[in-house]
Amino acid sequence: MYIADFHTHYACPAYPALPPRNTAPELAARWQALARRIADLDGLLAESGRYGVDLRVLSAPPALVTPHGERTGPDDLRRLNDHLAGAVAAAPDRLRGLATVDAFGGEAAAGEAVRAVRELGLSGLVVDCATDGQLLSSAAARPTLQAAAELGVPVFAHPVSPDLLTEAFAGLGRFGTSLARGTINAAALLSLLGDGVLHDLPGLHVVFPMLGVAGLALAAATDEGEVLTPRAAAGRAHVYVDTMGYAPAAIRFATDLLGADHVLVGGDWPIGLRDTTRERVAATLTRAGLDGEQARLVAGANALRLLGAGAG
């Protein structure tokens, strides 16, 4: 199988990766080493070769490289994306890049999205799923989402750490951090569905990590959730989920709901505790009960389709 890891973090060394807000002690203890790995492209390529990963999709969501309480400035976004384009160009058969975009930056953000795709050749966008009490369905984010739809490239909606939820769940340690991030991610997905953004922009393709799977579960229990499934045919919303790890039951749920053509391998490199390897991907998809064609799609074919000539 062709293996593509859609959820791989890489940041320009001039913009060190920052730990999530109110990071659990377990992650904080690892962060210095993680930040070095996130800036080490040669190390990532060497690891991918050892583990049999054919393609890495690189991304640095704004919250990963911007101090809490600040916004990623336009000049910073340009530098991040210029550097990413150069990194991808050094190994085009092994790397693709998602442009870092402040989705809540209105028309200026949309302009950077267009530049990054058309001039730099990046394959999609990565955005924070929420900011300052706003979710992705907000008016401020509409220009960026519309630009992505018109460009035919995917938008990766990455989790953030909202203060109230992160503090409320702090007693759960790393599970609390993940729960807070997953909750806001699920809310962002539901906002796109409930506020009609996915209906208004039929060309929009959005990818959410498995961390926000509660959004899928809630949507599946409503009439509106039908637009997520293959049964919706022409009216189907283009929502994808990356596995963000290797839990067979979660992958089975996502493929049952969305269809195997809307699920992508994602390891959350290097933050995820289990590395993406050819053996792990194959074993997990088998345990999830996927047949050969379904496994081929999830392992890499879906990512290639999304990142290729449009998102058809």
Automatic annotation (TrEMBL):
GO terms for biological process: secondary metabolic process. Keywords: Hydrolase, Lyase. The keyword Lyase applies. One of its GO terms (cellular component) is cytosol. Pfam families: Amidohydro_2 (PF04909). GO terms for molecular function: carboxy-lyase activity; hydrolase activity. SUPFAM superfamilies: Metallo-dependent hydrolases. It comes from the Bacteria. InterPro entries: ACMSD (IPR032465), Amidohydro-rel (IPR006680), Metal_Hydrolase (IPR032466). Residues 5-308 form the Amidohydrolase-related domain. PANTHER family: 2-AMINO-3-CARBOXYLMUCONATE-6-SEMIALDEHYDE DECARBOXYLASE, AMIDOHYDROLASE-RELATED DOMAIN-CONTAINING PROTEIN-RELATED. This is Amidohydrolase. It comes from Phytohabitans suffuscus.
